[in-house]
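Suppose you are handed a protein chain with no further information: no name, no annotation, nothing but its sequence. What can you learn? This example shows the usual starting point.
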Amino acid sequence: GEANLIYTCAADGTPPATVSFSANGYNAAKETAVTFASAGTYNFTVTISDGTLSTTSSVSVVVAQTLSSITVAPSSAIVLQGASKAFTATALDQFGDVFSSAPTFAWSVNGSGSVTSAGVYTAPTGATPVDTVTASAGSVSGSASVTVLAASQGFAFNGDGDIGSIYGVNGGTL
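A reasonable first move is to predict its three-dimensional structure. Written in structure tokens, the prediction is:
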């Protein structure tokens, strides 16, 4: 009877990533859960056998990417008053993989600076806040912190005003 049937699932071809089955190769596999490691299209062959006779069926499963997190780079920056700093956002799926087609990000700033729709932050000219720059898509968001220094603090920055290229007024590297 049915209790003697053996259920076997196998991935066909080269799947996008490894898969694992909660049960496979025995009767309990008639109700198996498949764990995927990446989004993509997976093709499977399912065989049911009683030891003498068998039947086979094929099934294709599409695992779609689901937006799970957004990273903003750099994660923190130090910028002089009035200077600008470009930030980038990266969308990650439920497996931690970069989205194959990035969503459109909405950029915002919590503080007294401003940010463009392209992620370029501009520090205020009359304050030295610690602002938070956020990129969001739907209900998912990621943030970075920006510390604004007064231009009168005696630092000169190369390029885009990021701390990565800071030198003291007297030429000493900090």
